[in-house]
Amino acid sequence: MSRKLFLGLILSITLLFILAACGGNGGSESSGEGSEGDSSEGSDSGSDQSISFTAKSELPSMDPSLITDSVAFQWAGETYEGLYRLDENGELAEGIAKDHEVSEDGTTWTFNLREDAQWENGDPVTANDFVYAWQRAVTPDTGSEYGPYFLGGVVKNASAIADGEMKPEELGVKAVDDYTFEVNLEQPVPYFDSMTVFITFMPLNKSYVEEQGDSFSTEADNTLANGPFKMTEWSHGEGWKVVKNENYWDADTVELEEIDVKVIKETSTAVNLFQSGELDQAELNAEFVDEYRSSEHFNVVENPYLYFFKFNQEHEVLGNADARKAMSMAIDRKSLTDVILNDGSVPANGYVPSNFVTVPGSDGKDFREVQGPLVGHDVEKAKEHWDKALEALGKDSVTLELMGDDTDSSQNAMAYYKEQLETNLEGLSVKVVEVPFKERVRRDQEGEFEIEAATWGPDYADANTYLNMYLTDGQNNNMNYSSEEYDSLINKANTELAQKPEKRYETFMEAERLLIEEDAAVAPLYQDAKSQLLRSNIEGVFPTATGPNFEFKWASVK
């Protein structure tokens, strides 16, 4: 993701059409009542280091083993701390690990842990907490989606354990002593330290988790933090509150005392609350961006989050590559970002986002710059592919269901997709289905969709975090795409080429061309950016490429 920082920058908590989400009547600064509200310093946060933010969705869970959504990533990322965190430059900063060593063959990683880290109840954070958490994440009875996905094929024996063929105790992790954590990998993974920022790799206090049983992380009183903040309130459907964790090892660095998060789906509501001083932040959609662009509280930041169409290829029509290519080419992405979204987002012309990773051996060039565009708007070619698909299917007309989130920004985008597809592809009718984020995630996981307006954010700083999603039967595939050639390329990049970075990235590019140009397995639409109102006296919050969307540890109210 672009790590250019803006003074006092922070993203709103979004979802996937989010990030996950993801997906008015406030006055401008030059217009009477709007000007009066916008110039306010808002809530009393300026004096007591308390701030209020919005979220567009409820928290489905705060259990690190079960979390799959961006909202929970954000707040679990503030209440838990793993081996490392990301600093404002996107570099790994000390977390529970002070440093690590890697064996010559790249398969054994030894993390040296700090001895002053505690859970909020005063228990020490030890290597055993990581052993327990990682074993729990791949144990079949836990039901973790990301445990088998992230550890499988990476940490030794993880896949076999997830498949019920080995015991959790046989996972390649070991507490050499209380403050030395050893990890044995199936093969070299050059970006493994970056992976440990992800929420699935957080430690867990075994005695606490087992004491809570099925109630663990379902209410504020059933959570246990070891990060900068701890959860004290959780009103389901309405919001939650986190406060400074005084037992955090680096508590002296944390200036914020409290973050009050309110679930608000409507942009106009959030803007009105910001204007009245009841919120310190409000995400803006296209309706409000131009109105508030000159405000001292306005800011924008890019994200490495991709929004795209996911085609369920089990469907008769969507199993046809020409039909998928037609729908991808029918969308005018430039008008989508400049007019409909109007929030700083940019058109996506490939599956790996821009400003995310550089290509080894390219003198620091960005992946997208080296690869070049793979998709674009071309109505004539779209019609040619569509006619070819209808002929092959023996149909004159088709009705397809497009599923997306129920937030107002997502609804605007969904209406645009429907108009573009129906206008440019004769005989196509699109039925829009808008559901709450939690329900969309469930349907995605179960493959209960035809076309999904989906999103994906990186889990670690490597192109593999995007491209390995579509391996045959992969846990985040869920759309019945399968290609032996694609599987072979991705597996080659991550095995025999694992320690040959230049050839590895050449293989990734070949795989992306196959996925997008030849198979049109998914249709990249746009790369996310967020425009928002944020009190200008809030400083030190910055976006991160992986883990939480943005970091509050170093934030303060000036």
UniProtKB/TrEMBL annotation:
Transmembrane residue ranges: none
Q: Name one Pfam family in it.
A: SBP_bac_5
**CDD domains named in the record:** PBP2_OppA (cd08504)
* All residue ranges annotated as the Solute-binding protein family domain in the record: 93-478
Q: Record keywords: Ligase included?
A: no
Do you know which SUPFAM superfamilies this protein is assigned to? Periplasmic binding protein-like II
Q: Where in the cell is it found?
A: Cell envelope
Ranges in coiled-coil conformation: none
**Taxonomic superkingdom:** Bacteria
Official protein name in the record: Oligopeptide transport system substrate-binding protein
